[in-house]
Amino acid sequence: MKTTFELENFLKWTAKTNRKHWSDELFNSYPRGGIIALDSGTTTICLAEALLRQDTIRPLTVVTHVLNVATILMQDSAIQVIMTGGDLRAPTASLVGPGARRFYEEIQVPVAFLAATGITQDGLTTSDFAEAEIKRTMIAHAHTVYILADSRTFGYRAMVPFASLSAVSAVITDIEVPVKWVRQLAADGVAVYTDQAPTPVQSSDDFSSSMHMSNWADFADTVDAVYKR
Q1: Which of 22, 69, 88, 173 has a CA that sits 20 to 30 A from residue 11's CA?
Q2: Long-range contact list for 49-53, CB < 8 A, 24+ apart?
Q3: 144 forms bridges with which residues in the sheet?
């Protein structure tokens, strides 16, 4: 059975595709003074590290229930970190339960970045009930939701569902995402952003960037548009 990829593997991927370029492109058009919410997960931890390296978007406010994310971002005084209350869940160093849920219910954020353990045609799944509750609440109180996921997440179904595909605006992944999943997500109106522009495949499974698959620069433009609404 496939398990959630480890942080080490994700770091190898981002290193292979030039991590500095990854963060620079991802937040190329991100507005100063923006507000985002960050979920628990290895991909969101990597995103926090990327935010720390990207000084063009300061000041920045990050809302999170994840201790590791807060610990990373607190190194920069220009990043305001707002943490929820809640009960500590040791495996993910995250705060869950009624305290965390009520906190997210009281706010509204322009953009939320979430992680997923599994992505299938039936939707997004995770391995823990308490984490799923927080993810659902974050989605309900965010204008735009992005999923950060390794390509191996596609086709895997974890125990607890937390959202349909149509509940998110886009999935951010690596270029090895299977073609059938790009098509499935496109059918549900979900864009796919990768670490590099897609290359059409010479076969019956040909696809192109017109099928909702774009690179980081296009993603940055969509985030910028969210803040201009």
Answers
A1: 88
A2: 50/19, 50/22, 50/23, 50/26, 51/23, 51/27, 51/79, 52/76, 52/79, 53/20, 53/23
A3: 111
What does DSSP assign to residue 74? T
Cβ burial, residue 196 (10 Å; 0-12/13-18/19+): middle
* Angle made by CA atoms 49, 54, 57, in degrees to the nearest 5: 125
How many Cα neighbours within 13 Å face the side chain of 37?
A: 29
pLDDT in tens, 104-121: 999 999 999 999 999 999
Residue 19: CA count within 13 A, CB half-sphere: 16
Among candidate residues 88, 5, 11, the one with its CA nearest the CA of residue 41: 5
CATH number of 7-228: 3.40.50.1360
Residue 124's H or E segment, with its range, is strand 123-126
Question: Where do the structural domains in the chain lie, given as residue ranges?
Answer: 7-228
Indicate the SS3 state at residue 137. helix
**143-159 CB burial, b ≥16 within 10 A, e <16:** ebbbbbbbbbbbebebe
Q: pLDDT by residue (tens digit) across 172-225? A: 888 788 888 888 888 888 888 876 544 333 333 433 433 445 554 455 555 555
Q: Can you give the C-alpha Rg of the chain in angstroms?
A: 17
Q: What is the pTM of this model?
A: 0.79
